[in-house]
Amino acid sequence: MNLKTLFFFTILLITINYNLKAQNYPEQELDSVTITSARIDLPFKENSRTINIITSTDIKNSAAVTLTDVLQQVAGVDIRRRGTGGSQADLFIRGGGFDQTLLLIDGVKMDDAQTGHHSMNAALPIEVIERIEIIKGPAARVFGQNAFTGAINIVTKSSLKNSVSVNAETGSFGQLNGSVTVGSELEHSSHILHVGKMTSEGYRNNSDYDNSNIFLKSAFNKKEQPIEMMATFFERKFGAENFYTTNPDFNEYEETQNSLIAFTTKFQSDKFKIHPRVYWKRNQDVFLLKRFEPNFFRNVHISDKIGAEANASYRSKLGVTGFGVDMSKVYLRSNNLGDRNRFMTTVFLEHKFQFANNRLDITPGVAMTYFSDFKFNAFPGLDIGFDITNNLKAYGNIGFTYRIPTYTDLYYSDPRTNGNPNLEPEEAFAQEVGIKYISEKFRGSLSVFNRDAENLIDYIRPNLVETIYTATNIAEVNTKGLEVDAAYNLKIDSFTQTLALGYAFLEDDILEQNEALSRYALNTLKHHFTTRLSTQFTEKIRQNIVYKHAERTTGQSYNVWDASVVMQLKQVELSVTASNIFNAKYIESGFTPMPPSHVLFGLRYGFR
Question: What pLDDT score does 18 carry?
Fold first, then answer.
């Protein structure tokens, strides 16, 4: 019996068969629920995992224009962009690949069976975001197979009351951005509608974009059995200069459309809660290798995911049990990948036990998944936490995680790339210990982690002469690192000033195995330091300064400074945002240089 099998059965037995006398362990009080991305709702300070929370106030003070800008300020989160405006960006956590991080919107999984390149196609406008929950480390037992190195859940605002907000921005590279956000609160329903558009002439040849977004969230039957509906539509049209090749004559071009509609409700009593959901997600992608010669090389992919899930929790004198089931069907139509489909079912089970007057918590759990083309797999895990004081908590977690190949990994083909239908799924066993302190003025955390992975998928060429990269399982890869996050709030003349910083160090042995032969894995973010200073000295004016330092395993190192000044004049808000102030020259992904220093002027008018 191997380690994974033994661990799986141990966790399962602990979860199902634990039997202590109830009178010694009183029922847990779940007070201010913060973390909504798990089946067991817990206040942030009670959770025994490494979780970053970005609030709507943090977003306002981030000098960020898009969601990708916000996430880049979190140590350990690597957003590799190919340009501005959020046209295309890949999401990485703790050195994992873009296929190994799961993005969720209000708990709806936005993974794409074609490729993880499309995850950020669903990135919401920051105007409708209430907070962002970033779960680092193996999250497969909570979310399923795509949460290999972590997950990010975007929680949208539930109400804007009766309000209208109009935003207009203009700046460098011919940027023109505009949006309208409307909130309506009625007796039996509430509604939020956001419509936005972002355009630019581009900061270099063939880097223009024309992006549109629509977001609608409604709650019906509020006084009886509320039903929540969320619908999104995102369209991006952009020049993709050197996104995938170095040929200056190609003028690569891409268009994507991403849409989602989901219906959710909740049934709840004192002890039992069930949260059912149905949803349909679609992604469409058209890529032209030569923008002005569409017949030269053209890829068209359309993927649909139809899903239904139910997440539940039950509180008893023995603790809190979380369980759920998630079923989905994926359809893909592609001129390159063929017509594919996959059926998936995942069953989740976890239980939180508490000891020592509720100071010690132990949460074993397991996710069991069936794939129609990769059969059965299980992801056991265990979280342990101990409250040293009311504000100081030590924790640790271990777990197995898993990812099946995308259809691009399996079947993609072009003159320089080959998929591999014989790929094995990726697997890893991860461990982590940490400590966190949370008070009104200061919050900080330190975590150390290790991940031992097998069969990681990368695109490899057999030698330096060969030009074709083939999807290949790398035998074994060890990844380890540490992360530090801290934020201090100080009041000066009744105004809150905030200094936040984060540092992440990561080391792996991929270079030793694939030096000069790997296409994607060599760009790991080895050192990542971020800091943000948000100050407000008058009632009307606030400013934000953001600094980011990055050093990658390839040796590339760069420093980027951003800043913003915001002036509030009754119902009018004026802003100036400067990005890459000192004109750093750097590349985050592939062959695409990031833009030089640029500025954006904004005006927002809101009324109720």
Answer: 40
Strands 108-109 and 541-552 come out as: unpaired
What's the per-residue H, E or C state across 123-167? CCCHHHEEEEEEEECCCHHHHCCCCCCEEEEEEECCCCCCEEEEE
Tens of pLDDT, residues 411-440: 998 888 899 999 999 999 999 999 999 998
The residues pairing with 450 across neighbouring beta strands, listed in sequence order, are: 431, 480
- Which helix (H) or strand (E) is 346 found in, with range? strand 340-355
CATH assignment at residue 194:
2.40.170.20
Give the count of domains, the chain: 1
Cβ pair 575, 564 in contact under 8 A: yes
Retrieve residue 223's tokens: 């006084």
Phi, psi of 69 (to 5 degrees): -65, -40
Element (H, E) at 108: strand 108-109
> Is pLDDT at 25 greater than 80 in this prediction?
no
- b/e code 188-202 from CB counts within 10 Å (16+ = b): ebbbbbbbbebbbeb
> What would the 3-class secondary structure string for 518-536 be?
ECCHHHCEEEEEEEEEEEE
User: What's the chain's average pLDDT?
Assistant: 87
Tokens of 557: 């190192």
What is the domain range of residue 258? 3-607
Distance in Å from the first CA to the final CA of the chain: 65
Could you count the other beta carbons within 10 Å of the beta carbon of residue 89? Answer: 25
Q: Locate 162 and state its tokens.
A: 């009766």
Type of residue numbered 220: F
Nearest alpha-carbon partner for 54 in 109, 127, 134: 134
Whole-number percent of the chain with pLDDT over 70? 90
pLDDT of residue 15 exceeding 70, the answer is: no
Backbone torsions φ then ψ of 94, nearest 5 degrees: 50, 45
Q: Which residues of 530-566 are buried (b: 16+ CB within 10 A; e: fewer)?
A: bbbbbbbeeeeebbbbbbbebbbbeeeebebbbbbeb
Q: What DSSP designation does 245 have?
A: -
Say if residues 177 and 170 touch (Cβ distance below 8 Å): yes
- Per-residue tokens: 607: 């009324």
Chain centre to alpha carbon of residue 245: 27
